[in-house]
Design the sequence.
């Protein structure tokens, strides 16, 4: 069976607002890092075939070492598909020497209207085997909570 990591959240904002937060550099830098991390975007090109590079730094690297260095994960993201305001498909490649983190992971962000809000479901496939599934799903859940806080504050 192929591994699928998934998390969902209802966000009290219209799909168009959530979609824009998925493609705005400042927004992504603010909400994407899960709890316990901070992020910095190093390049940004929000179009199909474009993407970004993000350095995620662990605030306390003693609990879980980084994939790129002791305290950092660097990931190159490509926007594989952009369907306004329904879906963003990304591919992610971690910069890591450890083969357990090698490969290309796909992350699909599904946005579905639900009353005055949006059901957001993130599905990850091709997750490198070095990434613990429970920890990954907790990280996605944390990012979704950050996204909700971010967009709900501006609407």
Sequence:
């Amino acid at each position: 069976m192929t591994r699928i990591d998934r998390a969902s959240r209802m966000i009290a904002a219209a799909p168009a607002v959530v979609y824009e937060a998925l493609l705005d550099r400042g927004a992504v830098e603010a909400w994407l890092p899960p709890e316990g991390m901070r992020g910095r975007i190093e390049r940004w090109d929000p179009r199909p075939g474009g993407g970004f590079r993000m350095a995620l730094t662990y605030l306390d690297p003693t609990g879980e070492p980084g994939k790129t260095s002791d305290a950092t994960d660097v990931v190159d993201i490509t926007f594989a598909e952009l369907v306004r305001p329904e879906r963003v498909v990304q591919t992610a490649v971690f910069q890591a020497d450890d083969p357990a983190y090698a490969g290309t992971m796909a992350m699909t962000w599904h946005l579905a209207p639900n009353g005055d809000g949006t059901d957001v479901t993130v599905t990850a496939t091709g997750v490198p085997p070095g990434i613990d599934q429970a920890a990954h799903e907790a990280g996605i859940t944390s990012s979704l909570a950050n996204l909700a806080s971010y967009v709900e504050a501006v609407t």
